[in-house]
Amino acid sequence: MRKLLYFLVAVFTITALTSCVIDVESEPDFSIKEKSRDLVYFLHSPTCGYSNAAKKYVNETYPNATIVFIDIDNEGNKEYLKAAKHDYNLGSDIPTPIICFGVNHITGWDFYKREALDTYIQDYLH
After folding, report:
1. Which of 15, 84, 85, 120 is geometrically suited to a Cys-Cys bond with 101, CB 3.0 to 4.6 A?
2. By three-state DSSP, how is residue 39 classified?
3. CA 57 to chain centroid
């Protein structure tokens, strides 16, 4: 009877311990660099004039590009901003938009950034 009791305690203990294991695979993956190999990730702030100008340019010039627009002002999307900072070794004061193309990225928006976008986006056109 004691052996059965010890056996049941052992089974319950193992079961209890294994139920504390966190399944890392089910955690959301916010990595930008890996995901942007197939899709352009466009992190923007709707209150930023540069973000709006870049978004307008992209939508008008490249309507067939595969782009994921992420509003970083939305609290649920802050993790994408953190991932971009990590993936591209960006500092703390990052101009928006942040446009990610695999290993390449653009931060901010001006004529020269538009030229870089025109080059990088070619691999994402359908």
Report:
1. 120
2. coil
3. 22
In the chain, where are the structural domains located?
32-124
**Number of Cβ within a 10 Å radius of residue 68:** 15
State the architecture of 32-124 in CATH terms. Answer: 3-Layer(aba) Sandwich (3.40)
Question: Comparing C-alpha atoms, which of 116, 82, 111 is closest to residue 99?
Answer: 116
pLDDT, one tens digit for every residue, the chain (126 residues) = 666 555 544 544 443 333 333 333 444 567 787 777 888 999 999 999 999 999 999 999 999 888 999 999 999 898 999 999 999 999 888 899 999 999 999 999 999 999 999 999 998 886
